[in-house]
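We close this part of the discussion by returning to an individual protein. Part of our work consisted of pairing the sequence of a single chain with a tokenised description of its backbone. The amino acid sequence and the backbone structure tokens for this protein are reproduced below.
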Amino acid sequence: MQRLKGVTTGGLPTFFDMKDNFGSKDVIQEDNLLHQLAECGKKVVFMGDDTWADLFPPEEYFVRSYPYPSFNVKDLHTVDNGVLEHLIPEMSGEEEWDVIIAHFLGVDHVGHRFGPVHDTMKSKLEQLDAALADVIAAADALEEDTLVVVFGDHGMTQSGNHGGSTNEEKRSALFMYSTGPPLRSSAKDTAELLREL
């Protein structure tokens, strides 16, 4: 919950927010990315970790929503398989969307159970590599310019934990893929491009 709040509001997670990781149904009240998308009339589709549905009521924020239970760290596949069931059909389907949020959770759960260098992590990463290849192929097949953004909300220690302040825990990856033209380098052109969005 803390990480999602930080990612969507731009604020820093607080220690006090940690209590909300355990069954909280508190809707985010601060200004946030999903609120701004809704204000702009964007159609957002969500799938994955059901924490999103607790923080952002689906009837207010999503045109379609596929939440899956996320709290059981022994369950390595339910959330990811649910995302995989809906992601490509949503991307290439007939129903309209502007933004798709697909929150995979298996890597996090594998890390907690086995650590980052276990064979199970290799299998989970291979599954996500294949999913990313499918997403890029689906994005390339769309007629409109599409931006794919893949990122983690935290890193992981050698024991599979996170939430602390070590470099391992604070580092995560960011990958972006665009089917549109390259972004221009001047600040003026970039500002104009952002206004068009």
About this structure: Residues 119-141 form the longest helix (23 residues). Residues 81 and 164 are 29 Å apart (CA to CA). The chain is about 45% helix and 15% strand. The mean pLDDT is 86.
